[in-house]
Fold:
Amino acid sequence: MDKKLLITAFEPFGGETVNASLAAVSALPDRVGDWEIHKLTIPVVFGKGAQAVMEFTKHTPVDAVLCVGQAAGRSAVTPEMLAINLQYASIPDNEGNCPKDEPIESGGNGREAIFSTMPIRRMAEAVKGAGIPCEVSYSAGTYVCNDTYYRLLSFFAGTPVKVGFLHLPVMPEQGSPSLEPERAVRALQLAIREI
Structure:
């Protein structure tokens, strides 16, 4: 039986008109290896990115969720090992929220960090083995990417649903360092096959 993967991308933010994650995810085929691919564009808004995923999985159960974001300044594809319980925004999100060192989950319920339930290192090695710059990252930042990742790892904890996050460098048109869109798509396919 086919396994279902929900792969998410973020809308443009910070005054940009494109997002490397959206370009790459949009170009993915509907099947990768044993995976049936479902795509979802989520908002760059604290809390709402994860909420969109939770709503989607209510009516379309999936076996895994892989979120994809863009990371300006990074020259390699970076699968994220963990998410931390912290929100800090250097620029407002797409609804103007700008938290400064606030916990995602407060009241003692939130763990300081939650590790991915996907084979992050194996995913990184598969991408790197194909000649695409790739390395495991131990910081998904403190912006909406990390917020979404942390909330989803917390939400799906104790379930069979695997959760991971992968950052892509920006596209050449967005600045440097960058990664060509076709190589970003290839990286995603290689990573998905390892889930």
User: Anything to note?
Assistant: The longest strand covers residues 3-10.
